Amino acid sequence: MSEPSRARRSRRSRQETEADLLAAARRLLDRDGVLAGINLREVAAEAGVNHGQIYQYFGSRQSLLRAAAADLVERRAAENDGHWELPFRERRQAMFRYRVEEPELVWLETLLALDGDDGFSPLPRFERTRRSLERDLDDGALPEGADAVAAHVMTAAAQMGYAIFREAYARDTGIPLPELDERAAQAYARMVAGLTLSSTGETPVEETRAERPPVEEPPTGD
User: pTM of the predicted model, to two decimals?
Assistant: First the structure.
């Protein structure tokens, strides 16, 4: 058990206990990786909580993973709302960087998908995303007639796939991981840019502005 776990043996409120359990689940994923999965008894031990409480509060491993993923999404949303106002290209590039630099959410989503969890939502804030996509079409950030939803889904799939396998890709290619991350980000940016081209090959008006530096603000979800 880690030092933080020992320090938290004093009596806690339910809210504090739930927060400790979610943090413990993320620490175990960070330590052991996605393929090791999550064991509720190990999570309880890591958090310094009686294992009966984790079943009382969450009921199942899937419920715990969903809660941990939702907690991450909500914390990102509280930190930054400006993500949704960016045009399509910048939003997708920002999400690629986020998933590479902050892999916790990817790991949680992967476990939920592998579990076949019917409650798993890979697009947890999609109604807000839909409004942004509609604005992209209206503003010309996506070309007229573009399938905005499909473009969003396929770019999300590319983000997830790379984030899950990036370390294995680096091993197989012999490319140092930081270098591969940068090269993959550049390739992804070109892929996304291709989706913003009109049928004539012209870049929509919204995307003809001078290239801006990468967005540093953390996005809030897909």
Answer: 0.70
